[in-house]
Amino acid sequence: xNFFMLVVKQLSKIYPSAKRxxxxxxxxxxxxxxxSLSASQPIRPQLIPEKLILPLQQxxxxxxxxxxxxxxxxxxNQMLAKPSKDPQKALSVPIHAPTSGTIIAIExxxxxxxxxxxxxxxxxxxDGANQAIENxxxxxxxxxxxxxxxxxxxxxxxxxxxxxAGFPTYAKLPNERGRIHTLLIxxxxxxxxxxxxxxxxxxxxxxxxxxxxxTAEALGAERVICGIETNKPAAIQAMxxxxxxxxxxxxEVATVYPMGGQKQLTLELTGIETPHDSHAVDIGxxxxxxxxxxxxxxxVSAGDPLTSRxxxxxxxxxxxxxxxxxxxxxxxxxxxxxxKPKVKLDYPLVMGGPMMGFQVKSNEVPVLKTTNxxxxxxxxxxxMQMPCIRCGECMDVCPVNLLPQQMYWYSQAHEFDKVxxxxxxxxxxxxxxxxxxxxxxxxxxxxxxxxxEIKAIHAEEKAVELAKQRHEFKLARIEREKQEREARLRAKxxxxxxxxxxxxxxxxxxxxxxxxxxxxxxxxxxxxRAMQKGNKPSSGSDKAMPSARLKAIEAAxxxxxxxxxxxxxTASKKSTxxxxxxxxxxxxxxxxxxxxxxxxxxxxxxxxxxxTNLKSESSSPTKEPSAEAxxxxxxxxxxxxxxxxxxxxxxAAMQAARSAAKKRKASSSDHQVSxxxxxxxxxxxxxxxxxxNSDKRQKAMxxxxxxxxxxxxxxxxxxxxxxxx
Length: 725
Hints:
It contains 23 helices and 17 strands. By secondary structure, it is of the alpha/beta class.
């Protein structure tokens, strides 16, 4: 202790606030420590309880997954549960058996947590033999030289931060060597009543120093500094003796609460203030508790996983407080009973110290890897909460230099956005503000509530934002799929057009097309030669009729002639009518042949479609000619007597039919005199019916002529337009 500290100590008797000159950080309080209750007692031998309750989640992160079943026999250091997911992402550590015994249950049990919730636990019944698996981590005795090698050992051993935070130790270490330049050892232990770290430094100082050196070597740290409060003289002497021949620096720090806070002790030992939005690792600093370094040394040197830890069992309600190397999973009540309670334990025990600890829901909750104290303080009268008098004491003692009074107002009014702006998440929940509040306001409880509400609000906002992003992604996906469908449809249409164009090009080059083109050229040449000889179209137009069309017309005429002859000969089916029918047919054929010969020399093929249509008409099996064919014949011929000749032929055929009927009547009169009158009546009826049929046919032919003239005019007009283009 230097001269300045002596002056401060003497001056503080007159001016208590002078104690704050002895350290660097802001605020702090000086409560009654009551450490002598347990520190004066030696460490007791390990207690084997009737059952061990091993929660699957004992750290920050996800719970482990059990790999044993009910009824299994296990040994000490045997793995009972492994990380359920990737440990690097899920922050999960394995659970090992603290002693040998039998798994009697895997069920829900109350956890040592402020919420009092239940969690899945492995219930182990010890057999008392304490049979252990030596070198369960399978280390080879060589010290790890890289951070990755050290992290692998720490992950297998299940070591977490044993100062109370519970963060997996392997996750705190960087993967690259050289990022940490200073390793800090936390031996302050500022919480009242707790003395487990003090006794650990007194009894296992060498293991602490070796664990620190192993960690510093693997990380490439240049300096190792250990901070111990001045109220632990025995621990300071033991640590200095163990670090005498090493590079570890042992520094005494002022006895003030909360000197054991990470940011406060870092500022005290190095003079570096950690920014509120970053971690100590970001500035090249790493702090570990003395209990954590001891567990690291055991894991690296002997291959022992973390199955027990030193725990302080103290309090004003116990007659014999003590420190003990307690198995993980030991019920709180078993430890409290071993310390001989002064009164019946009908009040809840406290996990941790009186400043930052919390009351457990059940005294049967188990000891965790983060449990450093089981406190049994009988309940005291609770002071009634009074309105805030704005004294400002909470602001003066805040070690993080926050504004507790404003945060309290906004938390009480549920204005959590303003609380967040006041950096409420920088609050370490040390309880200094509540300790000095003259109105007895539980300020820390308000801050904890505000933190949980802000986290819930952020989680909801994150969920809303995620839902919004998913909706926008869905709309974008629908639009993208629509565009892709349209693009595929356009590509398909283009492919069809290209295929059709290729087909047309290839079809124009086929032999059939070539032959058709040659035939058309030959017909055009023949028509040109005929025009040069003086032959002109007989229809009055500049276009000549195709020969195929004329042939079709002739065939239609013949069919019409045959139909008329058949209609005229229906009066009698005997052999006497054959001569008349043949004469009429011959007369019609001669007239048609004459017209065909004339038209053949005059007409020339100009319309390919008309040729196709007339071919289909000429190939029809119907004997009766179409009205269109007859009308085309009548409109295309140049002779004025064509219609009269046709009508004469028709009348001649009808007269022949009448003559045949009369002859038939005369020949049959000798044999059937009695039937003359009925025969004459039938003949007259047939003749009258034939006349009616003839009149109907004539009217149909006239209508067909008109339609044919109109169609021919349209075709001629279309042909003229095509020639002009």
